[in-house]
Amino acid sequence: MIPRIFYFLQFFTLFTVTFASTEEATALLKWKATFLNQNNSLLASWTLSTDSCRDWYGVMCFNGRINRLNITNSSVVGTLYDFPFSSLPFLQYVDLSMNQFSGIIPPAIGNLTNLVYLDLSSNKFSGKIPPQIGSLSHSKLSGSIPAEIGKMKSLENLFLQSNNLSGLPGLKILYLYSNQLSGPIPNELGNLKNLNDMALSDNQLSGSIPTTLGDLMELETLYLYSNQLSGPIPSELGNLKNLNDMELSFNQLSGSIPTTLGDLTGLKILYLHSNQLSGPIPSELGNLKNLNVMELNNNQLSGSIPTTLGDLIGLKTMYLYSNQLSGPIPSELGNLKNLNEMELSDNQLSGSIPTTLGDLTGLKILYLDSNQLSGPIPSELGNLKNLNDMMLSDNQLSGSIPTTLGDLTELKTMYLYSNQLSGPIPSELGNLKNLNDMELSHNQLSGSIPTTLGDLIGLKILRFNGA
Hints:
Layout: H1 2-32, E1 59-62, E2 65-70, E3 77-79, E4 93-95, E5 100-103, E6 117-119, E7 124-125, E8 142-143, E9 157-159, E10 173-175, E11 180-183, E12 197-199, E13 204-207, E14 221-223, E15 228-231, E16 245-247, E17 252-255, E18 269-271, E19 276-279, E20 293-295, E21 300-303, E22 317-319, E23 324-327, E24 341-343, E25 348-351, E26 365-367, E27 372-375, E28 389-391, E29 396-399, E30 413-415, E31 420-423, E32 437-439, E33 444-445, E34 461-463
Parallel strand pairs: 2-4, 3-5, 4-6, 5-7, 6-9, 8-11, 9-10, 10-12, 11-13, 12-14, 13-15, 14-16, 15-17, 16-18, 17-19, 18-20, 19-21, 20-22, 21-23, 22-24, 23-25, 24-26, 25-27, 26-28, 27-29, 28-30, 29-31, 30-32, 31-33, 32-34
Antiparallel strand pairs: 1-2
């Protein structure tokens, strides 16, 4: 009797699982029938005569129930109107990215209560994010980010980038970039205490940056660039001790750079450029010993360049151009041995060019143009053997052109125009075989044009006028 009961239970369980799988498969086939391209070769395996768990492209099961659906980049043209949200209760992983799905994201998406991964990126969805996304949570959507997004209890990854989006505690990744999101950043996002990465860039978000973002103690990446954000940078962002990458550029942020950003000692990338920031560069930024890239250009920053920036020994890129900086270039910048790019142009810097810049032997780009620099061009710049571009134009530099500049054999661009340089053009400049553009005009140069310049066979632009 017991063996018969056991056999019956086995049969009943098998029947139940098989029935459930068939029901789920039928629901997916009804959805597939709405696709505009029925001849899709990748989904040709989706038929009732095949096993959905073993044979269907992009479908995986657990205990006979569909729990993963991955048809990314499958050239599907369709909508989610007939997606069987209610018929797939065990679905945990959905990736529909890089297709041509359009229309709205239906409110029924809230029925996928077991979902832990959702990727709808690179489609053509439209409309608002449904508030029902708060029951869980890429595409052309519009409107504001709903506060309900802060209620997502179990979701770990949410990707919504490369769309036109115009509406939890466990969330680790929040990507809403490259949409048409508008309105303010909700204060409630500060509740996402486990968040590692937040990307809200390339939208139309406005208003100030919420101070509550300073509560995201696990945050490693913060992308808010290319929006319409205004107001000051909250000093509370200095609490984000795990932050590696902060990008707030291309907004309308104003006020001074908070000194508390100097507490972000793990920071590797700091983009604050293309805003309306004013006031001095905080000397505390010299504490960011792990910083690789600092871009503060295109603001209204004033005062002198802090000598403490010479402590950023890991720095590879320093962009301070197009501000209102004044005073001398600190000799301490010669300590930045890993620097590849130094751009200080379009400021009001004065004094001489430090000879210590000749120690930056890895430098490829040196832009000091459009300042008020005076004195001679240091012969030590001839040590910059990897230099590709040197722009010292539009200053008040005087004295002769150093013959050592002929050692810059990788140089492609040399702008020395609009200074007060005098004396002959060094024949050694004929060694610059990679030079494309040499502009020495509007100086007080004298003597003959060296015949060695005829060796610059790659030269496209040569200007001596007014020299």
